[in-house]
From TrEMBL:
<dbReference type="InterPro" id="IPR010652">
    <property type="entry name" value="DUF1232"/>
</dbReference>
<protein>
    <recommendedName>
        <fullName>DUF1232 domain-containing protein</fullName>
    </recommendedName>
</protein>
<dbReference type="Pfam" id="PF06803">
    <property type="entry name" value="DUF1232"/>
</dbReference>
<keyword id="KW-0472">Membrane</keyword>
<keyword id="KW-1133">Transmembrane helix</keyword>
<dbReference type="GO" id="GO:0012505">
    <property type="term" value="C:endomembrane system"/>
</dbReference>
<keyword id="KW-0812">Transmembrane</keyword>
<feature type="domain" description="DUF1232">
    <location>
        <begin position="163"/>
        <end position="197"/>
    </location>
</feature>
Amino acid sequence: MTNSHLLKILETTGYSPEELGRMIGLSGMTLRRWTKKPLDFPIPPVYVPAIRDTCYRLVSQGLLDPESPHVKAILLSGLSKGEHHAAIVNLGLPSDFDTNPAMNEDRILTSLVVIGAQEKKQSEVESNPEKISRFKAMGAEWTERISTLVSVIRSRKMSLTDKFIAYGALFYLLTPIDFIPDNIPFLGLFDDFAILGFAATYYMKMHQGEAEGPQDPSL
């Protein structure tokens, strides 16, 4: 990571060095000093994880484009192949899973299906209801999303296959945070709340489609 990446974040977000510094955990004076350095000035490695985590938050808030070359460079800074592999194995994704930072809703849902299809992941979700319920303390919207997904996995009307996304999202919620934002930039662009939202919305759309029933093509 170099000074050019940091300058691009400041330019794109419109933040002052003081504002961005507070997010990173640095003084504005330190950032201002860095911005006066040459573009290829290397950011001290000790600060790279904090800057990368801040970049994740800004992407999830829609303030940075994950497709931007500068953003991609930051998200991938300091990550080794071993770290990627450890995170992928922990989530149960294929070892050749594409770790491109760009993720869209369809790819997220597909990844959740792969995770939720594993019996071991299903078992972990089912054996940790209290731990899952604790996240409801985060607020009403958290409660709604979690309750929707829990009702899905408990449903006797839905097939196991239809429950995979719910299992995947709830397992993701249980996954230690260190395995996602720091080590795995594809799903890590979205926080737990967003992942729950993608999954809950999927089931709400499914329920809506079932309620409406088949459409008469003659209409």
